[in-house]
Design brief:
369 residues; mainly alpha; Rossmann fold; 43% helix; disordered N terminus; GDSL; signal; GDSL esterase/lipase
Length: 369
């Protein structure tokens, strides 16, 4: 018996015609979906790399490779990181610097420069030079960290490696267009100025010390500018008086320490003025101020708006003093870190960092528009 005649591909064949029409519709929908971009996506700037300087808020693991006890390369740190790996990030998961890199389509994670297993692609798309415990003031180095000015030595090494990979012209182009994030200053106050009351009489007033710290910040920005960087983001101070460790040490009965929050707000106002001045003084530079005070303060005082329940203690241990070596395998972590603003007594959770990142991105796009 002869097989049935095959249906040729033309519209006279109802089944194939219907399939062809459906295929065309699906392709049209898919093309439209791919081509459709939100206004924010269209505004997103393009950076070839992201570079980070500062303290534990942007240290993705450099302290793992220096002789210091202030490390986060042990559980329960990293319990919500992919594969639950304690990478050296001072949180339960990713940091804002990772989320910024992902949001800007640079890469999903920012590796530490001191990682001996860095791949060439890691260098091309950026690394973190930050070190937990550091500050602008060298006297802040309470944890044997890499001070911010010393992080420039590692940046010089990075420049050399980058030049060897792609040549001088291309390396200069990468540095000129890379986003440089500078996040530090909290340690200078929380673990230096406020921590040693005996020194207060030998030192400047809080206003004078703010000016001193910001002079160091200016020097750091100018050094990076002279080394080829022109696109920067400088992060302000958080509400330092609301850190669990601050409230614990000041016996504030779970209330934020108002005077330290007031100092942070004054510092941030000065910082914004300094940034405007530097943009005028340094031709071609573009500096964005990142306000983390407002989003973090709002999370602490309006937790239900963000799905948080605990705001005055961290998820690790008692959440009142534990951080670094004190947050360890003997410290029982909370059952659900997404309900906590703070992971340990100092650092936010990944969930809190996600909200901070969204706020920074909104500020960033507004600054560029």
């Amino acid at each position: 018996m002869a097989p049935p005649p095959r249906c040729r591909i033309h519209l006279s064949c109802p089944v194939i015609g219907l399939l062809t029409l459906l295929l065309q519709c699906c392709l049209t929908i898919e093309v439209n979906r791919v081509n459709a971009t939100t206004p924010q996506q269209e505004l997103l700037p393009s950076f070839p790399a992201i570079l980070a300087f500062g303290d534990s808020t942007v240290d993705t693991g450099n302290n793992n490779h220096i002789p210091t006890v202030f490390r986060a390369d042990h559980p329960p740190y990293g319990q919500d990181f992919p594969s639950s790996i304690p990478t050296g990030r001072f949180s339960n998961g990713k940091l804002t610097i990772d989320m910024l890199a992902s949001a800007l389509n640079i890469k999903p994670l920012v590796p530490p420069f001191l990682d001996p297993n860095l791949a060439p692609q890691d260098l091309l798309t950026g690394v973190s030079f930050a070190s937990g415990g550091s500050g602008y003031d060298r006297a802040t180095d309470f944890a044997v960290s890499i001070p911010v000015d010393a992080q420039l030595h590692n940046f010089n090494k990075y420049k050399t490696k980058l030049c060897e990979l792609v040549g001088e012209d291309e390396s200069q182009k990468i540095l000129k267009n890379a986003l440089v994030v500078i996040s530090t200053g909290s340690n200078d106050f929380a673990f230096n100025y406020y921590a040693y009351p005996v020194k207060l009489f030998q030192r400047l007033s809080v206003g004078g010390y703010q000016d001193f710290v910001q002079s160091k910040m200016q020097s750091h920005v100018k050094s990076l500018y002279e080394m080829g960087c022109q696109k920067m983001m400088v992060v302000g101070l958080p509400p330092m008086g609301c850190l669990p460790i601050t409230m614990t040490l000041r016996l504030s009965d779970a209330e934020c320490v108002k005077e330290q929050n007031d100092d942070a707000r004054v510092y941030n106002k000065k910082l914004k003025r300094q940034i405007l001045n530097m943009e005028k003084q340094l031709p071609g530079i573009k500096i964005s101020y990142a306000d983390i005070y407002k989003p973090l303060f709002d999370m602490i005082h309006n937790p239900s708006k963000y799905g948080f329940e605990a705001t005055n203690a961290g998820c690790c241990g008692t959440g009142l003093l534990e951080a670094g070596p004190l947050c360890n395998m003997l410290s029982a972590a909370c059952a659900d870190s997404s309900k906590y603003v703070f992971w340990d007594a100092i650092h936010p959770t990944e969930a809190a960092y996600a909200y901070i990142t969204r706020s920074i991105m909104a500020q960033f796009l507004a600054h560029l528009s």
